Amino acid sequence: MMRSLLFVLSFAVVALLVYVNSVNTDKEQLTYLLQGQYTQEMADASGKLTDLKDSVQKTLLFQDEQAIQQPLEDIWRLSSEIRDSVASLPLDQGFSNEWMNYLSRLGNYAKLTSDGQIPDEEWQKVMAQTVNNLSDFSTEWEMATASFFQNDVSVEKWMANIESKQPSNNWQSMGKTLKTYRESDFPLTTSESDAQKKKDLRQLEGKKITQNDAIAVFKKIFPAHADARIHVTESRKDAPYPFYHLEFQDGVGLGYADITQKGGNLLSLLFERPNEDKRIDSQLVKELAERFKQNSGFTDIVLDEVRENHTAWHMTFVRVEPRYNAKVYSDAIQFKVAKDNGDLLGMNAMEYIQKENLKEQPINKFDWKTFFNEGVKVEEEELAYTENEQMEQRLCYKLIVTKKENEQQITYRIMVDTETGEVLKSENVK
């Protein structure tokens, strides 16, 4: 009897040691993968920042409209690609906001210049200073990121540095520098200033919650992670808006979530774990996303777009304004859902949690047969909001139209102002 008991206990201990070793090995492998991914994204951003500065310099060489078009297109493309790289990195929040803002404005300015909406002399005037600012910032970026290109920086050290009150790489200082650059290079109009306040969540209302409240909110929204180990830190005092940063470990998975102190709104989620070698039905993925939508209280949003890669579904939900039953594309939530088991791997609700200020607007009828050329067919029509050049929300007819070109049917998405008939957006749907 005693031998049997000792055998069982020994077997249990060995099994436990094997399990713990397996979990630690998986966690270590995941950490290496994350470190490699983050380092690669940082390297990509650094290389493209140099290319971006070169493209801005090239625009100052030419007066010919055709010659300047390619560098303008490069600026628009590179600014977007750098934003994508920065968005995937766990960097200081204030720095990320300012850098993304500056890149957005630079890219949009290049696009407007390419379309002839900004005079060449105005572009030359602004870029003369911008190229100097980009050159100075490139030097600061290289100094701040140098240590991350070395193999001795672990993910744990990286996160500890970012969450520190005094980061060694001084991301706070770089964020303030970028804010100064943006205000000098691209001063905000009144409507843009209002939009920036929304982006920074300065007008966010609601009762202030505690760290324990934030954990309770997290567990309610993500019951699958209710047993995870959670570590909570507060945003620094100079953050654009106060929030709680939750770092959690669930099995071999590592995750991060941000929840606002005012109102306890979920801002974002990132969950990293190894992918399993299986696939679930795409319809089930959509049902799981809908179920999460209900659990989190996002009841006024509808699925608008679905994309996929080899590991995940990327879904965009947008808020529906009840007065006109119109989609509000500026109030969107992005979900990333795993293909192997339906886990929610990522979420971004920053655009949604502070709703746009929408005004009443006349809805005039237009004859699409006379509005479009012969051969253009309106396939779909619905109401939706989008921004005009003054960054004001306008109610539009969202039209999906098709036209045959060179024996191929081309599809366009067109936004037409319901009051003025102005085409605010027109894009090819691939």
From TrEMBL:
Superkingdom of origin: Bacteria
InterPro entries in the record: YpeB_N (IPR048402), YpeB_PepSY1-2 (IPR014239)
Pfam families: YPEB_N, YPEB_PepSY1-2
Domain Sporulation protein YpeB PepSY1 and PepSY2: from-to ranges: 169-358
Positions of transmembrane segments: none
Domain Sporulation protein YpeB N-terminal: 27-139
Protein name: PepSY1/2 domain-containing protein
Species annotation: Chungangia koreensis
Taxon lineage: Bacteria, Bacillati, Bacillota, Bacilli, Lactobacillales
